[in-house]
Structures are given as structure tokens and as C-alpha cells.
């Protein structure tokens, strides 16, 4: 089974609107971390937001928030007030286990296009 | 703000040749990683490195790959005999030992094998 599933290969959103990018994960480990990265056309990977499995509250970072639903094993990224510069690939990732050097598992990504 | 750097940004090589991809992780980080991303596909883990040894590696990381931290600042990925299917973007990442869990990624090296 895939560790991370992103079911939306492409999404469009109007500038200034909010958009939700879906991510579901699969793990039996009670301790894990969930991450979202942005990859613009230039190719670099930019960290956006992190949610730990034991965090009680949903993570927020500026216009980014993570809708963490543990029972459903989902960690959707919400971008509020979309900007043209938000157009990029977005990857959801997971680290299993305690806070050590464990690898990240990435999803296949969602390509977001912001329309003026 | 400190960042992970990678050189070269683009490497073109002939099939069968050896390549070395270089990375300078963030200076107070202790865990180092290599990932690759074939064009249009997801990012795949290759190897993690801690305390001067490999801590975890994937099935992709076979005998043709090796990693080294030769001088306490650089972290290298060597591909001994490149194949066409090694063409990909290779990302180096690093993270602190404790606390916040994110990995900081470098800008990547695009490897093209002809």
C-alpha cells in the first residue's frame, strides 16, 4: 500500500480564493510526522508546514493550514487567499517513527494553478 | 538564513561514467539524506546518513551508489557506472537531530545520462 496518497493530479483556483489539497496516509506507527512541500517550476523543494501525530491542534503557518483528521488518516493542506506565486507542485510527505533520521515518504504531488 | 547547497546544478554524463554529486548541508545539522525525482514523478528516498554511516537505504540504493562525508562539511553521492535510468533530479537534505521535524532540501542537481 502507498504510504502517502494524493488523489488530485491537478487543481485550479481563482486568485484570492482558498484551496484544499488532499493527502491521505497509511501507517501503523503511533508516532509520525506529516509535511507539505512546495516545488515551483524552478525545481527546489520548499518546506511549508508540519504536523506531528500527537499534536492536538492543526498546524498553521501564515496562509497555510493543515487540516489534520487523525481517525481518517488525512492531512489536507489549505491555502487561503491564493496568489499567483502559489502556482507549483505540492507534495505531502510522512516520516514514521520517533523524531530521528527516518526517511520521508512522498506522495505523487498535486499541480496547483492559480488563475488571475 | 542557512541553507543546503548542491553542486553542480546540472550534470551531463555518458552512460557508464562515474559521477559525484556534492552537497553542503546546514552546518549544525546531523542527519543527511539523498532523494531523487525522475521527471514528472514523486520524490524517492535513496539513503540517510548519521554519525558517519548509513542509517537507512532504499532498494534503489544498490551497489552502484555510495555516500561519503569526506571532510565534515561536504556530503557526496557517487554513482559508479551511470545508466540511462539514473537521469533524474537529485536532492540533498539535512535536519537537526532534535526538535522540529522538517528536512531542509537543497536546490537539486539535475543529472542527465546520455
Describe this structure in words.
The complex is a heterodimer of chains A (116) and B (114). Chain A has no helices and 12 strands. Chain A is mostly beta strands and 116 residues long. In chain A, strand 10 (88-96) and strand 11 form a beta hairpin. With 114 residues, chain B is mainly beta. Helices cover 0% and strands 49% of the residues of chain B. Chain B has no helices and 11 strands. In chain B, strands 2, 4, 5, 6, 9, 10 and 11 form a 7-stranded mixed beta sheet that branches. Classes of the chains: A mainly beta (116), B mainly beta (114). The A-B interface holds A 33, 35, 37, 42-47, 50, 52, 91, 93, 95, 99-109 and B 30-31, 33, 35, 41-45, 48-50, 55-56, 58, 89, 91, 93, 95, 98-108, 110.
Q: In a nutshell, what does this entry contain?
A:
The complex is a heterodimer of chains A (116) and B (114). Chain A has 116 residues and is an all-beta fold.
What percent of residues of chain A are in strands?
Answer: over 45%
Using only C-alpha atoms, the radius of gyration of chain B works out to 13 Å
**Main beta-sheet strand count, sense and barrel state of chain B:** 7 strands, mixed
Shape of chain B: globular
Structural class of the secondary elements of chain B? mainly beta
- Which bin fits the share of residues in helices of chain B? under 10%
Q: Termini separation of chain B (Å)? A: 37 Å
Largest binding interface between chains: A-B, 25 and 31 residues
Overall strand count of chain B: 11
Number of strands of chain A: 12
Oligomer: heterodimer
Q: What is the helix content of chain A? A: under 10%
How large is the count of helical segments of chain A? 0
Using the CA coordinates, give the radius of gyration of chain A. 14 Å
Low-confidence region ranges of chain B: none
Main attributes of the structure:
heterodimer; A: 116 residues; mainly beta; six-stranded mixed β-sheet; four-stranded antiparallel β-sheet; B: 114 residues; seven-stranded mixed β-sheet; 11 strands; 0% helix; globular
Amino acid at each position: 500500500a502507498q504510504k502517502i496518497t494524493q488523489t488530485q493530479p491537478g487543481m485550479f483556483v481563482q486568485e484570492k480564493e482558498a484551496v484544499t489539497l488532499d493527502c491521505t496516509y497509511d501507517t501503523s506507527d503511533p508516532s509520525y510526522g506529516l509535511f507539505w512541500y512546495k516545488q515551483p517550476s524552478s525545481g527546489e523543494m520548499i518546506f511549508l508546514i508540519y504536523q506531528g501525530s500527537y499534536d492536538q491542534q492543526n498546524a498553521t503557518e501564515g496562509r497555510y493550514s493543515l487540516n489534520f483528521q487523525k481517525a481518517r488518516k488525512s492531512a489536507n493542506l489549505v491555502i487561503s487567499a491564493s496568489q499567483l506565486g502559489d502556482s507549483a507542485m505540492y507534495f505531502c510527505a510522512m516520516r514514521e517513527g520517533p523524531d530521528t533520521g527516518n526517511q520521508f515518504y512522498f506522495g505523487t504531488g498535486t499541480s496547483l494553478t492559480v488563475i488571475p | 538564513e542557512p541553507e543546503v547547497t548542491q553542486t553542480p546544478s546540472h550534470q551531463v554524463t555518458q552512460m557508464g561514467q562515474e559521477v559525484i554529486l556534492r552537497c553542503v548541508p546546514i552546518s549544525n545539522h546531523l542527519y543527511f539524506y539523498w532523494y531523487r525525482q525522475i521527471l514528472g514523478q514523486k520524490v524517492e528516498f535513496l539513503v540517510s546518513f548519521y554519525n558517519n554511516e548509513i542509517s537507512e537505504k532504499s532498494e534503489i540504493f544498490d551497489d552502484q551508489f555510495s555516500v561519503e562525508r569526506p571532510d565534515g562539511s561536504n556530503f557526496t553521492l557517487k554513482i559508479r557506472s551511470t545508466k540511462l535510468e539514473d537521469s533524474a533530479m537529485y536532492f540533498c537534505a539535512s535536519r537537526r537531530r532534535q526538535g522540529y521535524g522538517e528536512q531542509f532540501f537543497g536546490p537539486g542537481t539535475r543529472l542527465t545520462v546520455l
